[in-house]
Amino acid sequence: MRSSSVAVALTTAALLGLPAVSTAAQAASPPALSSAVPTGTSAATGAAAASQAGDHTVTLVTGDTVRARLEGRDLRVLSAEPGEGRTGITFDVTDRGDQVSVVPSDAASLVRAGRLDPDLFEVGTLIADGYDDARSQSIPVMTTYDKSTTTENADRARAAFGGAAKSRRAFPRLGISALAIGKKDAPGAWRGLTGGSAKPTGLQGGVTKLWLDGRVTAGLDQSVPHIGAPTAWASGYDGTGVKVAVLDSGYDTDHPDLVSKVVASADFTGNANGVEDGNSHGTHTASTVAGTGAASGGQYKGVAPGASLVVGKVLSDENWGYDSWIIDGMNWAVGQQGAKIVSMSIQSGPGYADHPIATAINSLTSEYNALFVVCSGNYGPGTSTISSIGVADKALTVGAVDLTDTVASFSSRGPVGDQGLKPDMTGPGVDITAAVPGGGYGTMSGCSMATPHVAGTAALVKQRHPAWGAQRLKDALMGTAAAAAGSTPYTYGTGRVDAARAVSQSLTANPPSAALSVTSAQPTATQTVTYTNDTASAVSLNLAVSATDAAGTTAAPAGLFTLSASTVTVPANGTAQVTVTLHQVSSAISLFGGVLTATSSGGASVRTSLGGRIQATSTYNTTIRVHYNPGAGNTITLRGDSPLSWTSGQNCVNTAAGLWECGFNLSTGQPFLYKPLINDSIWATGSNYYGVGGGTYDIYPTF
């Protein structure tokens, strides 16, 4: 499980000579290939940071400066100094397992309240993204605000910085503005944004949250037949008449496989060569969607060779792009070009459900009824590693499998948020050969390769059912996915895309996935699943649920999931419903995954992925006493396995010499495990984890 850190003691004003700590996302990268560099490495990863080895000075959005040293993958914070007019500011330096943050004391409460993006203070991310002082004189940010007042509120958001922020892009319908804050002006801009308060409770100018405008990265001959696309072609469905947008690094405008396919293109990066692809990633993904295979005699034909393409260059030739470039391209693709399917082989760092790109996906899907098919991320094999783009509820989030339908080690896994289900499904993403600039072909791996397989299949389904909107397409693709042995919804979603079944079958289920949660106070939770039959004949379905723990290794307890009926008949051109119930059963396991399968004697099959979480409602009043004197200017932290909900985590006092005491209110159905650290990097030795389930716990660490 991923780890959480809870600050337990005091922070320091000047942090000198702290122990070295690991700076990067520890996720595994895709396997190295002889013909291509693996896709999907985050700009904030250790590998990226390591390429900038040496000493760096980083000015934070508050105007404070941090000196840091990168040696290989190790990041050492050398000092943190208050900016002009900010005397008395202290700093909290925290290692959360995959990053090192330096948070000024007047920003900490806003970070905890969700009003400031933590990446604004992630030193490794800022260096890796090129925002250190040697390479950037400004800090690119985005503000989100109430979009109900559109342009007026965008102007207010900019004015909140006291004139110290320059507008870069504005998306008033989405409630997002992209700005640049000059580093020399940062202290004044920060005072304007926070009202000059030492303990601000909110942001000025109607700004609801300030984000770092971070950098995102790019996350056939066997794979296309593997998913059944030729069978769909033989039935007359090759994507003809369907427009698919590909937002990536552009495309080779002279490649024979694409020269007749692109009906509109635009560059959002300021590239001197326009939409030309100087990276190869965009050409590869575009040809996977709809390439003709002309340069290979048809061997490397895309999934939907009859579809037309709209190409937006939102990634530079160096394989990165600002979040605001992506949002601009999304607006253009669906708002101006009318694309109803958008393929985005792009990833950001794991996790924020309110990330501006995720918010934009949900808003644009609702407004334009367009399906965004996105990459889950290449941060596997750890759990809860879905990219912030992939967590969007309305997106169709795609993981990667090989040609044996085994999930790729690099493919990001769920759950997301409060144990939500992602990815939605998988596609072929290992050793995929497709077009690259220069008229030839190259082999790449990543969820970037899986995503266009699913987007192309969506085009085939859209051709057959032109009236189907985003949700119905998503229902069809997920419901017809092929099962894989030992799969769980947190790894595979509903399964691997099956183009042949998706096109031939007109029976769908909604919702295509459901995450349920129960407590001792509410021991059951239900979800109604609606089956829709678009054929002229009634269909009788046999229903069954299978479930395991989240890892897929242990069968779920009997009675965990039940159905209101074991069979149901869906009338011709009609609907029928069944209710799934999750029960609070006795189990040492708290998280489960499963699938509801509906099958007919005529061969129809619909899969609905299920998630089940069993938790207690008791709030444990817990006191943790750490018997250790950390010394002046140092920090004691307790690290624990997630998930965890806590309050009052900062109410910590030094009750006696060598004894720090912190009170927590915990809500968890299982014993919780902690271990103490000092300065967030030195693990205690000679002691095991400590279970926390209410009461008082004494910890005697040895460092």
UniProtKB/TrEMBL annotation:
Identification of the protein by name: S8 family serine peptidase
Gene3D superfamilies, per the entry: Peptidase S8/S53 domain (3.40.50.200)
Active site: 248 (charge relay system), 281 (charge relay system), 448 (charge relay system)
InterPro entries registered for this protein in UniProt: Peptidase_S8/S53_dom, Peptidase_S8/S53_dom_sf, Peptidase_S8_subtilisin-like, Peptidase_S8_subtilisin-rel
Keyword list, A-Z: Hydrolase, Protease, Serine protease, Signal
Signal peptide: 1-27
GO MF annotation: an example: serine-type endopeptidase activity
Keyword Metal-binding among UniProt keywords: no
A Pfam cross-reference name: Peptidase_S8
GO biological process, alphabetically ordered: proteolysis
Family: Belongs to the peptidase S8 family.
Peptidase S8/S53 domain ranges (all copies): 239-495
PROSITE patterns registered for this protein in UniProt: SUBTILASE
